[in-house]
Write a structure and sequence with these properties.
By secondary structure, the protein is of the alpha/beta class. It has a single domain (about 45-295), classed as Rossmann fold (3-Layer(aba) Sandwich), CATH 3.40.50.1820. It has helices spanning about 1-15, 55-60, 105-115, 145-155, 155-170, 185-200, 215-220, 235, 240-250, 275-295; strands at about 65-70, 80-85, 90-100, 120-125, 175-185, 205-210, 225-230, 255-260. The chain has an eight-stranded mixed β-sheet, sandwiched between helices.
Length: about 300
């Protein structure tokens, strides 16, 4: 029959279906997308800038800041100082910012800007002016370690004389009300405390994690002293209890605050120690401003 012959021919000429399907080629592998960078903490403008925020804060500040040269009482190069002015109609109290052992830095200048925001004239003297290479100061030193060496070489008497010169310059500015207080950090915190013993007309002293002067010097302090310390900064904080006892015995005003979990330098290193440094800053700074307003009004 012709029909079976045609069917057979078709079977012989048609391609045979494979017994199994070949899997499709695998999709090309792509590298995983990089993780998004950790979010940068937005700056709270009611607080001083941290070290990483300082330069940006200065660049964005609407307030007037400038370098001035203050006559050195010992002769030689002038004391280079950074001054920030508040935007206000009335005359303002002066706050002398005493820098850390790291010298006059962007961070110290940013603290001055924050104080100006709060209505004070803020002055940051470079206390090692003239002591660096070629008669320079902090910014003439090749490294931070070199600045530290300069600061540590400054004698207490030299520091006091330079602070007196800067204070005298600042309180006689046309925009100043004639009163001055200090706020210092680390090495500068200790100098702020000691300067209260050396300068009888000082209106107040704020000490951030700085050591106190010798017990005999505490008796000469007339200005109220406000202190802030990190709970995990035993080198400094271990001195607080004895100092508080002695100041009470002498009838002096000393108000210390110790912040649990915070470390040394917490106002500058606000992002360290799992939030403890920032929390300490959030508590210490409003108290600082209130204290200075009360003493400089």
């Amino acid at each position: 029959m012709w029909i079976p012959l045609i069917a057979t021919a078709l079977l012989l000429t048609s391609p045979q279906a494979p017994s199994s399907q070949t899997p499709p080629p695998a999709a090309p592998q792509t590298a995983p997308a990089p993780a998004a960078p950790a979010a940068v903490r937005a700056r709270d403008e009611k607080l001083p800038a941290s070290e990483s925020q300082a330069k940006s804060a200065l660049d964005k500040s609407p307030r007037h800041g400038e370098y001035v040269d203050v006559k050195n009482p010992a002769g030689g190069p002038a004391i280079r100082s950074w001054i920030m002015y508040p935007e206000r109609k009335e005359k303002a109290g002066v706050v002398i910012v005493i820098h850390e052992v790291f010298g006059l830095s962007d961070w110290a200048r940013a603290v001055a800007d924050q104080l100006a925001r709060e209505g004070f004239i803020a002055v940051v003297p470079d206390l090692v002016s003239g002591m660096g290479p070629n008669g320079g100061g902090s910014d003439s030193s090749p490294s931070r370690d070199d600045v530290v060496k300069l600061v540590r070489a400054l004698t207490p008497d030299e520091a006091t004389a330079r602070l007196n010169a800067v204070r005298d310059y600042a309180i006689h500015l046309p925009a100043a009300n004639g009163k001055a207080a200090t706020v210092g950090f680390c090495w500068g915190g200790g100098r702020s405390f000691s300067y209260a013993a050396a300068q009888p007309t000082l209106a107040g002293a704020v000490v951030f994690y700085g050591t106190p002067p010798e017990p005999a010097d505490l008796a000469r302090i007339k200005a109220p002293v406000l202190g802030f310390y990190g709970g995990d900064d035993a080198r400094v904080t271990a001195t607080v209890a004895a100092t508080e006892t002695e100041m009470k015995k002498l009838g002096k005003t000393y108000e210390p605050h110790v912040f649990e979990g915070a470390g040394h330098g917490f106002l500058r290193a606000q992002d360290d120690r799992n939030g403890a440094n920032l929390k300490a800053t959030q508590q210490a700074w409003p108290r600082t401003v209130a204290f200075l307003r009360d003493q400089l009004k």
